[in-house]
Design the sequence.
């Protein structure tokens, strides 16, 4: 009896062992050259769930015209950049990836992206979009959408725009005092990291950009603009607005959005991606320029989304054909706008989209903006920058000393 | 030898499992082994075609190993252990060896591939489009297995050339409706499909614009347009240097995984090299890292020790309470108590992060009537919150374990102690607890090791924050070593540094290994009680 059970167990163990080996081999031969033997070519592209539906049409028409299949692999947006950098060198990365332009710096630093010559097509796109895709004098991606933040105003609560941040806070508090709203002003802040991205437009009006730009328009990592005299002024005003109830470190992006859609605030500093839900909630909104605090113009960050080709793409020619000659078309860019709601980078598509006054207004404000720096040093800036702004907003530190300390810390990190 | 002995030996031999295998057993064994071998042979061919020799060697060794183990008559234990050992090799030993390897390299941002990849990337980057040069429409032609570019300039002039033959004007080309030259007599025009078949060759074609190579050459990316490029960085293979053709600067392999000029300017990307003990040195020598490293190590020990103590204390207390025979509704309470254990730590972490939110959290808003307590953003409160949530997550396990252990201690022991006049506390201290520890102590050690690396709770609740104010790194008051390693490796600050992160993990491994070894030695002393 005992012997019998032992035998069964031993056979079971062998079964496990064999399935293990099967598994191990299965994964190792997956990377095999399936596509070269079967004749038809397959491209892979990493996209996030939000953009995949819009790309399906472009992929289908590419398949029809050129008999090349484009496999859309849905990746988590947060980890896509780093996965791309790790996987491309091993040869297992995709042929193409969709992402914002500020990934380019890291891609180039790691040699994982191929330059993309737009040629005469560059003229068909908004200049700012092409410029954003350009890094150290070379273009690396095909832009498809431009986005930036602006001040969204609930016209039912406030019908006239305000110019400066002080006016905005005063007007907002007026509405709150009148009992018509709960918050004078909303902006999504991460309770742990703050949100320098949204507040950047206001900051630049003090003459303190994150990095200075050289004549060619490239950000210079050696010239930190955060330390300009205006920086401290901005920090002091942050504390003042926080005292006035306009900035609240516990209001995250989601909380802000919900509150605004409920009509609890006249102002919301946000981007076009939140507009569809506002309209669904039945709000009447107007798009105002970023309010200023200092004497200079407010230049919000522009984010440009685009398509990049891997430097180790297995089907580089087909990938170039798809990106350069299919995704650059009006049809493709129209479709991407329709599903994503982000203003198109192609001029012709943008003009069509701009028949909507809200898209047009965001676009107009975007023209005053500057591309978010793509240089790898930017990674070193976000954490300190955000945490310090957050501490100032919370009133935990003295802005006059905390801001210069943060600048010093960023400087030492950038210097390596 | 007596006859009895002989008979016993015979019986022993007869009862060897190999000899008593039934027909079905043998068949199943043959089929399974055959499957393994068939797949292994297929994998060997595939791997050989891809020239992945290391993986191939491992596959062959494993397959031969499995065959030997299961075809042998003897060695029954090996037949049981083989699957487990294979798993151990793949998921533990390989990962550890690889981490060890990475710890001695400079792997990370800017150094994430091989030298040849870096050379290729630098060379592509060095290709610069000639300023103000036109965009050419392109047809790719083929003649006797060599590729030719037929290009149409914007002004309508048509020219033909190949990698060997500079561009030359042709006037007998056939032009399509849009004015693009598509074919020339004597050459065959490639269709898009044919282009795809020869992608790599076509992308490698560079047609010189004139006899002078420094005028640039035509290249294509998509097979339908071509641009003039000039290379401003040339690679000299013999000397292993890059030369900037406009400034004349020479970049040499500086021995640190990148090409550097004499002024110290480096070309990106670099590549992965072996850096010896540099990463370990950096972990202890960089002031920014060192200062926070000490604080983090201290907190890690405090967190792990307190977690074990609290969890064990509460678990044991509850187990004793619910072990009282006269209590009613024990089953219900026990189920309720085990519930936190059933939730994934990830989920609970997020839920608690919401509950503890300063402004909108349930605890401040409802339980404390709108208080403004910074549970997660004040350094000491954050440490408290992390410990508290970890206690909530961890006590059910200890409760279960202690309940089991308590029930296995015979009641007579307790009774005997009481008869001898010991107080209940004394009976517990002197009799129950030591007996309990015999079975629970090893679990306490593993709980300690687990909490030493308790990534989930920390990352889900506070992400290691709030940040230390006197350091520039993104390291905070509740950071454990493991979350710090994660931040170094996956760069929420200055970029990813796999080398340093691996070195730190090895340090953690050594620390935990030593502690566990010491403690396990102590627990053997406990077993003497038995």
Sequence:
């Amino acid at each position: 009896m005992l012997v019998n059970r032992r035998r069964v167990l031993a056979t079971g163990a062998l079964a496990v062992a064999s399935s293990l080996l099967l598994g191990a081999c299965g994964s190792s031969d997956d990377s095999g050259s399936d596509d070269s033997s079967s004749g038809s070519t397959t491209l892979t592209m990493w996209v996030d769930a939000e953009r995949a539906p819009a790309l399906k049409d472009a992929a289908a028409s590419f398949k029809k015209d050129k008999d090349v299949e484009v496999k859309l692999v849905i990746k988590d947006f947060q980890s896509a950049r780093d996965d791309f950098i790790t996987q491309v060198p091993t040869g297992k990365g995709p042929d193409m990836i969709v992402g914002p332009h500020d990934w380019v710096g890291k891609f180039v630093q790691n040699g994982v992206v191929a330059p993309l010559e737009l040629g005469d097509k560059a003229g068909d796109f908004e200049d700012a979009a092409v410029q954003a895709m350009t890094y150290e004098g070379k273009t690396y991606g095909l832009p498809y959408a431009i986005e930036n933040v602006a001040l969204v105003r609930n016209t039912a609560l406030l019908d006239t725009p305000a110019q400066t941040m002080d006016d905005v806070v005063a007007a907002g508090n007026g509405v709150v005092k009148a009992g018509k709203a709960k918050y004078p002003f909303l902006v999504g802040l991460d309770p742990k990291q703050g949100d320098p991205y949204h507040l950047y437009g206001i900051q630049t009006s003090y003459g303190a950009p994150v990095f200075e730009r050289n004549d060619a328009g490239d950000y210079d990592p050696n010239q930190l603009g955060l330390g300009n005299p205006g920086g401290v002024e901005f920090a002091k005003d942050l504390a003042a607005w926080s005292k006035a109830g306009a900035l609240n470190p516990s209001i995250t992006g989601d909380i802000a959005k919900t509150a605004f859609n409920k009509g609890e605030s006249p102002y919301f500093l946000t981007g076009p991606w939140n507009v569809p839900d506002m309209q669904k909630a039945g709000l009447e909104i107007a798009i105002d320029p970023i309010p200023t605090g200092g004497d200079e113009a407010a230049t919000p960050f522009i984010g440009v989304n685009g398509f990049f080709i891997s430097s180790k793409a297995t089907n580089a020619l087909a990938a170039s054909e798809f990106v350069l000659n299919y995704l650059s078309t009006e049809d493709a860019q129209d479709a991407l706008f329709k599903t994503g709601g982000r203003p198109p980078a192609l001029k012709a598509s943008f003009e069509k989209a701009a028949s909507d006054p809200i898209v047009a207004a965001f676009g107009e404000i975007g023209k005053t903006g500057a591309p978010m720096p793509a240089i790898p040093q930017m990674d070193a800036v976000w954490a300190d920058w955000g945490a310090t702004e957050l501490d100032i907003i919370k009133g935990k530190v003295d802005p006059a000393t905390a801001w210069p300390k943060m600048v010093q810390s960023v400087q030492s990190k950038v210097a390596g | 030898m007596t006859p009895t002995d002989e008979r016993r030996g015979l019986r022993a031999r007869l009862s060897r499992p190999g000899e008593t295998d039934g027909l079905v057993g043998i068949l199943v064994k043959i089929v399974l082994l055959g499957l393994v071998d068939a797949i292994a042979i297929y994998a060997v061919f595939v791997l050989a075609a891809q020239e992945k020799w290391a993986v191939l060697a491992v596959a062959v060794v494993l397959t031969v190993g499995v065959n030997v183990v299961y075809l042998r008559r003897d060695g029954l234990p090996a037949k049981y252990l083989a699957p487990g050992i294979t798993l151990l090799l793949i998921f533990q030993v390989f990962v550890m060896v690889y981490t060890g390897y990475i710890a001695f390299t400079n792997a990370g941002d800017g150094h994430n591939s091989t030298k040849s990849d870096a050379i290729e990337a630098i060379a592509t980057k060095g290709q610069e489009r000639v300023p103000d040069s036109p965009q050419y429409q392109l047809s790719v032609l083929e003649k006797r297995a060599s590729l030719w570019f037929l290009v149409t300039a914007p002004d309508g002039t048509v020219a033909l050339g190949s990698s060997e033959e500079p561009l030359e004007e042709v006037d007998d080309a056939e032009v399509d409706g849009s004015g693009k030259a598509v074919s020339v007599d004597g050459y065959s025009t490639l269709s898009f499909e044919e282009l795809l078949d020869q992608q790599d060759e076509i992308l490698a074609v560079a047609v010189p614009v004139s006899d002078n190579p420094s005028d640039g050459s035509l290249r294509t990316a998509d097979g339908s347009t071509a641009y003039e490029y000039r290379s401003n960085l040339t690679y000299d293979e013999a000397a292993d240097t890059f030369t900037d053709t406009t400034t004349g600067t020479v970049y040499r392999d500086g021995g640190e995984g990148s090409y550097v000029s004499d002024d110290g300017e480096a070309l990106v990307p670099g590549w992965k090299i072996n850096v010896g003990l540099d990463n370990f040195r950096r972990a202890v020598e960089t002031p920014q890292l060192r200062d926070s490293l000490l604080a983090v190590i201290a907190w890690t020990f405090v967190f792990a020790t307190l977690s074990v103590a609290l969890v064990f204390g509460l678990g044991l207390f509850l187990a004793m309470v619910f072990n009282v025979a006269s209590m009613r509704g024990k089953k219900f309470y026990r189920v309720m108590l085990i519930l936190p254990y059933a939730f994934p730590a990830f989920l609970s972490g997020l839920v608690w992060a919401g509950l503890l939110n300063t402004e909108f959290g349930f605890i401040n808003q409802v339980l404390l009537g709108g208080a403004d307590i910074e549970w997660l953003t004040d350094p000491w409160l954050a440490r408290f919150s992390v410990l508290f949530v970890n206690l909530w997550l961890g006590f059910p396990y200890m409760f279960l374990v202690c309940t089991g252990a308590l029930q296995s201690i015979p009641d007579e022991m307790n009774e005997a102690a009481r008869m001898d006049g010991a107080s209940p506390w004394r009976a517990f201290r002197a009799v129950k607890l030591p007996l309990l520890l015999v079975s629970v102590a090893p679990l306490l050690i593993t709980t300690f090791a687990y909490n030493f690396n308790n990534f989930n709770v920390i990352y889900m609740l506070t992400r290691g924050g709030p940040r230390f104010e006197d350091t520039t790194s993104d390291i905070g008051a509740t950071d454990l070593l493991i979350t710090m390693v994660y931040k170094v490796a996956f760069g929420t600050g200055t970029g990813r540094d796999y080398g340093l992160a691996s070195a730190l993990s090895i340090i953690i491994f050594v620390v935990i290994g030593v502690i566990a070894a010491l403690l396990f030695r102590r627990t053997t002393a406990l077993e003497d009680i038995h």
